[in-house]
UniProtKB/TrEMBL annotation, chain B:
Keywords: DNA-binding, Sigma factor, Transcription, Transcription regulation
Source organism of the structure: Seonamhaeicola maritimus
Leader peptide range in chain numbering: none
PROSITE patterns reported for this sequence: SIGMA70_ECF (PS01063)
Residues annotated as domain RNA polymerase sigma-70 region: 13-75
Protein name per its UniProtKB record: RNA polymerase sigma factor
Lineage per the UniProt record: Bacteria, Pseudomonadati, Bacteroidota, Flavobacteriia, Flavobacteriales
Length: 80, 183
């Protein structure tokens, strides 16, 4: 038996495929009797699915740095 | 009504991903999207004195970006563009752009899906912007950019258990934020 806190942690790890088989078994055992965690687990899975489905993207960190540099330069220019 | 402040020093950290994602669903070319976002920030800086504080900074920047996107499409559809004869069998693998093939295909739902996806993307970024800055950053790195736990920990100088606590909080908040309209 594992406490809720650990169950949620395993659930989070599972979203990134970082949990072991044994952890997943323990999580599922917990979910059988714990309604709160069952709901969390449910929503967590949906969140993962939605983000995957939306294909959202982030700027590449290097690109962001360059943008920052350029904007900083423009800010200075404007101030002077 | 609160009077919104403007602070260009924070723009990149706070809004660049949001603006980028907004653009990418509308122009679908990464480099052009990056350029448009950059242009938006520079244009925003120039017209800062026109910012009256009625809308939030982000809304204001989006309104500039929208105009930039429209300009972009105007430019590529200018007379020069129209004069080109386009015969679009790009290569052997992809199908061409012939009129017959443009007739609506009931089995092809991509357009609708894409539209829904861009709305979903906006919604996700909207929810992300409600998180505390650190949570949003960690969540983005881990979930959207898919960095390894170790890499994020090194970059942000936090421990692994720290990271998981932040991820847990972020996921809880994101789920309840998206729940109403998307689950």
């Amino acid at each position: 038996m594992i406490p809720c806190e650990e169950a949620n942690h395993v659930c989070d790890k599972t979203q990134y495929k970082e949990s072991t088989l044994w952890e997943k078994i323990k999580l599922n055992l917990h979910l059988i009797y714990c309604k709160v965690c069952r709901e969390y687990s449910n929503n967590n899975g949906k969140l993962t699915k939605k983000i995957k489905q939306s294909k959202v993207e982030c700027l590449d960190p290097n690109c962001k740095k360059n943008m920052k540099k350029e904007l900083d330069r423009a800010i200075e220019e404007q101030a002077s | 009504m609160p009077n919104h402040q403007i602070n260009p020093n924070k723009w990149i950290d706070l809004y660049s991903d949001y603006l980028y994602n907004y653009t990418i669903t509308r122009v679908s070319d990464r480099e052009i999207a990056q350029d448009l976002v950059q242009d938006t920030f520079l244009a925003g800086l120039k017209s800062m004195k026109n910012f009256k504080g009625e809308a939030s900074e982000r809304t204001w920047l989006i309104s500039i970006l929208k105009r930039k996107i429209i300009d972009h499409y105007r430019k590529i559809n200018s007379n020069k563009g129209k004069a080109e004869v386009r015969i679009n069998y790009k290569d052997d693998e992809t199908e061409g752009d012939w009129l017959e093939e443009r007739v609506a295909d009931p089995f092809d739902k991509t357009a609708e899906d894409q539209m829904q996806n861009s709305e979903l993307g906006d919604a996700i970024y909207n929810c992300l912007s409600k998180l505390p800055e650190k949570q949003a950053e960690v969540f983005k790195m881990k979930t959207i950019q898919g960095f390894e736990t170790e890499v994020i920990c090194n970059e942000l100088n936090i421990t692994a258990s720290n990271l998981w606590v932040i991820i847990h909080r972020a996921r809880t908040a994101m789920a309840s934020c998206l729940k109403e309209n998307w689950f």
